[in-house]
Amino acid sequence: MLVQVILAVGGSLYFSNFGDPMLGLFAGTGFNPCHLCWRGRILMYPLLPVVVYALLSKDDRLSFLTAFSSFFGMLLAAYHYLIQQRALQNVFACAPGNDCSSVAWHI
Question: What is the pTM of this model?
Fold first, then answer.
């Protein structure tokens, strides 16, 4: 779980700060996250200190918190993906020029 959280947080920070990895590390200013991306990050970023604390203290009670945050983060990511694929309408207000339905980069 710790490796997954580190990769998720690291990847999010990388794309926000540096942007497209194919153009080089310092090629751009990074991707500007939309409202749904920020909501996903709000669920994801606290997982890193929670998982580290749970591993160091061997506290199994925190597994509910990580499962709760991960579950709702996956639901939000699935909803965001369906909006990007034009399968659903977006019910959230997005900023002009930073639409939640746009895809900035593909793997």
Answer: 0.74
